[in-house]
Known about the structure:
Blueprint: H1 3-18, H2 24-39, E1 43-50, E2 53-60, E3 67-69, H3 73-81, E4 85-87, E5 105-113, E6 116-125, H4 133-143, E7 151-157, H5 160-168, E8 173-181, H6 190-194, E9 201-208, H7 215-224, E10 233-234, E11 237-238, E12 244-248, H8 252-268, E13 275-279, E14 283-285, H9 293-296, H10 306-312
Parallel strand pairs: 12-13
Antiparallel strand pairs: 1-2, 1-6, 2-3, 4-5, 5-6, 7-9, 7-12, 8-9, 8-14, 10-11
Helix pairs in contact: 1-2, 1-4, 5-10, 7-8
Amino acid sequence: MTKEDKYLELLPRMQALLSGEEDPIANMANMAALLHQTMGFWWTGFYRVNGDELVLGPFQGPVACTRIGRGRGVCGTAWSEMRTIVVPDVEKFPGHIACSAESRSEIVVPVWHHGEIVAVLDIDSKDLGTFDAVDRKYLEKMTALLYGPQRDIWFAAGCFWGAQKFFKLVEGVQFTEVGFCNGRTQNPTYEQVYTDETGHAECVHVRYDPKVISLQELTRLYFKIIDPLSLNKQGGDEGTRYRTGVYYEDEGDLDILSKEFRLEENKLGVDEMPVELLRLTSFYRAEEYHQDYLDKHPDGYCHLTPAHFLLATK
């Protein structure tokens, strides 16, 4: 059985275990226990955000550090940079906090709630190079279960700066990040994607609460911010990296999305739009410079206008 097979088997068990329980500490305790027992990790646990510190929460394994400052070590860095961090060799990570000399590799996954990081899941191994993109993918899915049934979808809408700002304004969206999806190159840089030789599309990863906003509503909003009849071009941005598309991980989303695509095509009077509807095959987070770009640089160019952003709040 591969590691991914183990996670695929574990995910529905985790969903069933946490279903109906609203206390996050209880859910963290059970998640840490099930992950630890099933995957055989050396240390599995949570650090909760408390002011400017991470404070030790439910865990499985040997005694650990009690408090970690923001930006310190792998946990504090994952919190401050708001991203999952995979460390093949902890001794090579700048500022690593050695709670135990037995820890050799590590992964830290932020836990999001109402658009903020409230904790991190920290997992350590006694072996080098234990964790990879497979661990990140499934551990992010599991931490999203802690505070309710959050869901994920990826939208390519031309330049990803404006798309991120737009979806951040939508009520029910819990988290956004920009990156590159469904290309051929692993871990591409923005400069590489810009050549149109990697096959990636600029996109925004949207995590949302289906109790507040549905996938149908998000998709209808998406069609309001793109020209669905334009191939590889939105506004002044042109190239395959600026193609439009909706990318899903859950096969159950395909039927919902297909219906919304047909509705939009009927509205436009066309048989097919040049908008991709595909399973997500890869996603790589863009450099920090691009995250929340229009918040940092309000005068930055984007084909979306203030009128588009108003649509997100209606």
